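Hey team,

Sharing the Glycogen debranching enzyme run so nobody has to redo it. Sequence (663 residues) first:
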Amino acid sequence: MRFGPNLAGDWEKGAEKEWLLTNGLGDYAGGTIAGTNTRRYHGLLIASPPTGGGRRLFVSKVQEELTVEGKTYYLAANELADGYRQNGNIHLVEFILEPIPTFVYRLEDIYLIKELFMVHGEATTIVRYKLEANRPCSLRIYPLVNDRSHHSVNDSPSWPFDKKIEKTCVHVNSPDGPTVTLEATTGVFKEMYAWFHNMCYPHEKERGEEHLEHHFIPGFWEMEFESGGEFALSASLHGSRVEQYNQLYEKEINRRKEVTARVRTQKPLCRELARAGDKFIVKKNGETGIIAGYPWFDEWGRDTFISLPGLLLVTGMYEEARQVLAKYARYEQNGLMPNFIPDDGGEPQYNTVDASLWYIQAVKSYLDYTGDMSFIKTEIYPILKKIIQSYRVGTDYGIVMDADGLITAGEKGVQLTWMDAKVGEWVVTPRHGKAVEINALWYNALYFMTLLAGCIGDQDARKLYGELALRVQEKFPTTFWCVRHDYLADVVFRGERDERLRPNQIFALSLPYRLLSTRQEKQVLNAVGRHLYTPFGLRTLAPYETDYRPGYFGDRLSRDGAYHQGTAWAWLIGPYVSAYRRVHKYSRPSRKVATRMLAPFFHHLFDFGLASIAEIYDGEHPHTPRGCPYQAWSVAELLRVYVQEVLEKRPKPQWVCETNIQS
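Structure output:
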């Protein structure tokens, strides 16, 4: 993936395309192809301190000045508070994304090539330079250092940073932070005590967030070259790593090749999605986890379980999937799985009605792919039984099975489903009562548990779950079906139906066990396809509804007010395509249609968060990508559905016993 000077060298165009590096720990580096930082989340080293805690910005960027025959070229690209721009991006002639982000600058007949990569498994970023010149020149490189949460900005240029200089190396400490070591393979580091004032982040300004920041400059490297050369510098929380930069580079390139090989296909979209998915897979304290999205999300239970089949199972990472299921089994509390696990070590939050049900679906997918009944029986099955029991008799947040067998949930001021936008005390889409996808998940959990209990030999549980599943199967259509619309209500609360057309009903078609007649399935698919389908996912509300919001922009109140009120979500393309193929009985024409549905995402890989899939898109043309540029379940569901529905490489479960819930 390469971009020329018409894009990389153009401020407006280049600033809209972002690159991202990760290290398998949840740490990251990121910016734009124009070299400018447009978000407070952009930086060269953003990591959790070795002692623990949330991710922090330690190094914002490094800025180069090249002098040749008395003329100095400034390569910095920044926007300042007054709107003034340092436009070093005009010297960019190419940006190359793979195998690692590479900036190519041309200055007269001299080329400066700047490559970036992170060391997997540690908080280290390496910058490798190649200077191609046939005459003497000198180079200065200024590091911009900080120490603050990646969710905030540093608006005070008076922190007492300490520093220690050793030839080509500088160690920088903030009052309570770790030591950041910056070292180059050549030149000399010269001390200065200065600040870069009022760096402006346009994306944050547009979002109504804090957008001005000051960075500490401890000094600069000065280097002299007779006719070019190669060198590198490192920014690390683990001491100097720069001497091994070539070995570290080769190791990272080989690791990336292994990632691509996991999908065992030459299809370009699959290979790109495998590389994209790898960024979300992290290992902390020896256990695998899934980051919900970069740059601002942490681990979310719901997102993890929805992403697990696409990121870990279709790629053959069965051991990592096993670790995820085992880890979350330990987090279970009153039958609930965590909604959110903070990266700062805080207590998990459990305000979710669907995470536990998605966990059961993830267990089923794991069993379908691996047949690992021993692990499920000994470590997971008791947790699954506790979840079912808790939902039956009632648990936190008003989650309980009603007399008709359906799940109802809701507590004032608390958002419980995936449509979870909340501003202050305003829950935008509360969905209290019986939500359609929750009960589709509940039925599928009961059906699966009936089969699983039968295989394990737990006959009492098998009988109970089978009876409950039959009750839900009977009540679901009569409770949710809207005769005048020929689709499913979104929520039923105290007998009143919310009949606004939303995408949540698609799960009644896409989940493994069916709840509707063939005619009803076709009618639901028709309604969703006509009014909610877009090239980049499903709208969260039909355009003809009074609360419909066509775009996601403005301040936080405006954005969250549109989050689930018309905004299209990419991850929903997965269940939609699965439902489409199933309703059309997996015919050859339906496979072609599925291929066409996924094609726009291949082109999207060249936009916004490069080589990844965004979280959301505007509901109307041109469906501008918004929200998180790198979203785990967007990538995961696209990869899963491509492999299962287009390549038709579905698992062939060997564990299922000859059990019918009606017997």
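The radius of gyration is 26 Å.

Ping me if you want the raw files.
A.
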